[in-house]
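Severity: low
Component: inverse-folding endpoint
Summary: output formatting inconsistent between runs
Steps to reproduce: submit the following structure tokens with default settings.
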């Protein structure tokens, strides 16, 4: 059987998945909304091998970055693959190779794109072995991917994905082809993984009411984006990541990803906004880096921000690309 090569994009949540129902296979305590990052991709190649156990290796290709998964990362990836095999009654053994087109030492999460790519690759290769898999719909694949890593269920759709309960679905919003900047203020491995953060936040007194706050923001953000109210959209997105980071800081034990540099970058963003009354949507994940999303017509401001932050920090900047609507 020929090897199968599949890729999937990463995504950035504007309404965050933070908090899950323990033991539920990553069912979230609130809905989330993300923008798909078509420039940041994971590639997964599956090759059937004769015997032994499934194995993981980095995918070596000149256009991809070298990926060095930790022992834990490897086990988690292999476990998801073995769950998919069990679900679809597959007995064959595979070599799984994967790599990203973005550096793994830049502090960008790759679990969303990698688990989505692995799920899609498995569905493609297994359908030759089990005809029942033919035509499995994307909601089912999203649900399966979620069980590997929650945020990955949104990476199957784009440009916008809404995840409620079991799986994600595409969300029809006109805003597309956004420019994206990541100011990389910290590129070392995180002390607290997002999976651990999901557990810890439930100890915060602020977790009470968090699902409700997220749902209200989701509704308001969708309306703001539908009515092109960029000011309001930006404020909601800002409040949302601040809310998430406050959960981290008020958990027991408390923790924080914010560094002095993250705070400086955020302050600069605020000052630019006050000055120009315009600017990007700004958000942060469970990490120190700051993400910015610009409308297509903000190309000049995209270039200015890029130049401003690149003078002091590592900056990844991606011009908006046409999304395949999927
Ligand atoms: C802060 O999807 O990495 O990026 O389900 O445990 O794999 P697991 O968690 P993960 O959590 C992502 C959290 C976030 C917000 C988001 O992407 O919605």
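Observed output (run 2 of 3):
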């Amino acid at each position: 059987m020929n090897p199968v090569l599949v890729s999937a994009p990463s995504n950035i949540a504007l309404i965050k998945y933070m908090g899950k129902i323990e033991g539920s296979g990553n069912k979230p305590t609130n809905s989330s909304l993300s923008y798909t990052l078509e420039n940041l991709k994971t590639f997964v190649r599956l090759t059937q091998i004769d015997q032994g156990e499934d194995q993981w290796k980095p995918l070596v290709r000149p256009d991809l970055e070298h990926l060095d998964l930790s022992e834990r990362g490897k086990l988690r990836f292999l476990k998801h693959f073995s769950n998919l095999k069990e679900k679809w009654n597959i007995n064959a053994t595979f070599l799984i190779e994967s790599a990203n087109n973005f550096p793994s030492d830049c502090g960008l999460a790759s679990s969303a794109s990698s688990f989505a790519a692995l799920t899609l690759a498995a569905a493609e290769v297994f359908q030759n072995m089990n005809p029942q898999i033919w035509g499995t719909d994307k909601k089912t694949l999203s649900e399966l991917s979620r069980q590997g890593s929650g945020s990955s269920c949104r990476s199957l759709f784009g440009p916008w994905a809404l995840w409620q309960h079991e799986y994600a679905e595409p969300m029809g919003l006109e805003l597309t082809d956004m420019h994206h900047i990541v100011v990389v203020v910290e590129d070392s491995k995180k002390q607290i993984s997002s999976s651990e953060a999901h557990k810890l936040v439930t100890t915060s007194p602020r977790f009470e009411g968090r699902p409700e706050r997220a749902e209200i923001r989701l509704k308001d953000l969708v309306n703001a984006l539908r009515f092109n109210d960029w000011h309001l959209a930006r404020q909601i997105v800002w409040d949302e990541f601040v809310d998430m980071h406050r959960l981290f800081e008020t958990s027991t034990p408390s923790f924080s990803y914010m560094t002095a540099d993250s705070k400086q970058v955020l302050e600069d963003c605020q000052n630019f906004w006050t000055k120009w009354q315009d600017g990007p949507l700004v958000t942060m994940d469970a990490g120190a880096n700051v993400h910015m999303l610009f409308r297509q017509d903000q190309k000049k401001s995209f270039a200015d921000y890029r130049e401003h932050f690149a003078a002091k920090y590592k900056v990844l900047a991606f011009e908006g690309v046409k999304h395949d609507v999927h």
